# Entry
Amino acid sequence: MAAQISTALAIYFVIWWLALFLTLPFGVRSQHEDGGGAPGTDPGAPVLTGMKVKLIWTTIISAIIYGVGVSAYHAGYLSLERLTKLMGMPF
# Structure
């Protein structure tokens, strides 16, 4: 039972981490685009990153992806036999 919970958490964490890197570039404005910036800083440095909103969106997106994956697994679409046939590998 503990292995199932830890595996589920590990899979969710990987999906969450990938979703975070997908959401990071959205809505970021550089100092050059904003027309200002502190002297001595890189013009490409972000002015405001909006990390709180991005973390919320990352959690929502990863929960949806994880839910679809778990539903597909329980429906039999993500079984080991089916995936090996799909990839042309012997089981």
Observations:
- Residues 51-75 form the longest helix (25 residues).
- Residues 2-87 form one domain.
- The radius of gyration is 20 Å.
